[in-house]
Write a structure and sequence with these properties.
heterodimer, A: 393 residues, alpha/beta, five-stranded parallel β-sheet, 10 helices, 16 strands, 35% helix, globular, B: 322 residues, mainly beta, four-stranded antiparallel β-sheet, 1 helix
Amino acid sequence: MIRWLVGLIGWSLAATSALAADPVTIGVGYLGIAGTRSTLSLVEQPAENDGVAGARLAIEDNNTTGKFTGQRFTLEERRIREGEDMVQAATALAEKNGFIIADLPADGLLKVADALRERGTLLFNAGAIDERLREADCRANVIHTAPTRAMLADALGQYLVWKKWSRWLLVVGSHDEDKLFADALRRTAARFGAKIVQERTFEDKGGARRTDSGVTQIQRQMPVFTQQAPAYDVLVAADESEVFGAYLPYRTWDPRPVAGSAGLVPRSWDASQDQWGAIQMQNRFIKLNSRRMTALDMQAWTAVRMIGEATSRTNSGDVKKVTDFIKGPDFSVAAFKGTRLTLRDWNLQLRQPILLVDGRMVVSVSPQEGFLHQVSELDTLGYDRPESKCKLK
Amino acid sequence: MLRMWRVGLLSGLALAAAPAHAFIAYVSNEKSNTVSVIDTDSWTVTKTIKVGQRPRGIDFTRDGKFVMVAVGDDDTIQVIDAKTQSVVDSLPSGPDPELFAQDAAGKILYVANENDNTVTVIDLEKRARLGDIQVGVEPEGMTISPDGKTLINTSETTNMAHFIDTSSRQIVANVLVDARPRFAEFKHDSSEVWVSSEIGGTVSVIDPKKHEVIGKVTFEIPGLRKEAIQPVGIGMTKDDKTAFVALGPANRVAVVDVASRKVTKYLLVGQRVWHMAFTPDEKYLLTTNGVSNDVSVIDVAAQKVIKTIQVGELPWGIAIAP
């Protein structure tokens, strides 16, 4: 039967169009940092191939379509080790790949973007959620499939306000990115009328995330840390650094739900998301990668699918043509979120619904009902056009 | 799905066996794993049949004796005896069957299997799997041309309508349409195929000979955001003059003038309208409303919603007995 199928595919290619005889090859690079970060929960520990696994699935999906359009997609992965030159690695990757999916820290991404600008390589930021990459430091050759901190915070905030949990106890970690997330949460509270009744800082005093003594100390520390708080409805944790957030649920002094970096978490994607036809993609992902799909996998998948969508619509593998189409007014991509995703043309951020998940289920999806907008309700999440400081160049 | 109903209808008319008004509608309830049986005389649910997991695509066999329902999470198509109204058999589909179409004689069934990018070909009499046709990512919409020579399959992530020659079972053309194509419907005179794109928010009109998109139906509802307009099911009257398009979370069915491809009216139905079926006399059009758990009854001539019938949880597909 396999032979029959192969013959069939070959036949259909020949019949479809002349260009099918000699498929156009479209090279996609994946640039990331070697090694994985440590999380408090072992379950949340990212796999070695976090992100690139999503890109790989999208390459397969694109290639299934490519059989009919005469396009072939390849994926080249490059992981940067400590001490290696990021720009050099990116330039080498750009030799054969007109499109690069990047999972890099903000500074690294900007360096790479500027180095590849002349070459015309189109970058997709699948990893960095920093606001500044879409604001003061935005670049015309970088498209963002990762949501921003403000989008994530707004998505959570809309739900908490809808739920009438409007008094927040904000607990912030001591690292820079924790503070940035706290900034975003404060902005959200101000926008949507929630009140931060008190802020507390959880100092990172170092120490291992895994110990043989286990939870006995944590069980005593967390109630003490959260006692004597003013009346509040929900504890909102800003702990991107994975120092304390996951320790909070069920351990607060007052019986209150936890949200933010633990408890109810805003994410672009989750392994439990099965609405809007997502189950098919989750199944394809598990079959290909023998694990479940993360938000980073989805952000990379979406980036590669955007490329595939644009190459099939333009019937071209030309980077300039494809880039123009993606940035143009007619572009949209379907990504199992119940609505078409489009780009904010002022900063090249992908508009997207944000899931609110508890680690087992999708609890809700924002934007919430009633948060209205004159252009797209998705623009109630994050910085909107009038507030933007981005000047694309 | 509607196609199968239509041929069933023709044989029904030929025999002139059915009484004037009473028809039986079968509605698949995706969440409650049941099929609701509706009597179109009393507009009530007369029976609820337990079926497998996640029933969606549903239709009658050509002879009107059986109802086939795709139960995706059980990887099979179950067969309901229309007389006893109970499940009597199952068909060997591929993984996760969703929608299907059968040939004019009712001998061959073509099933879209969402999970493995194939269309499975089944011999209905022998209940045997004849083979698979490789198509795009997430095959869904299925329809056969009135002459039976061409099978159309739409693939949701590849965004194409695949034209398959039913005798050779090979793809002869692929037509790119807007994002997430979900349903395909031929005009009765075979001159056009209409394909709905759920995420693209349009219906593409394809010339089945030239294999080209020759027009598009677009939708605009004042006060409703564009993203909420998600076309899925399509129904066309026998005279090919009027088409009805279910618009999903827009909670409306668009009435489209087929010749000009313009919307003439939007009918407010239940929430998240998926699919639809005409009664054989074409007096009524029934739509399944996924989120509000009901079926809307549209008076076709008056173009008005006249009734709402509560069914199971998340109704999806609908077929009406010939």
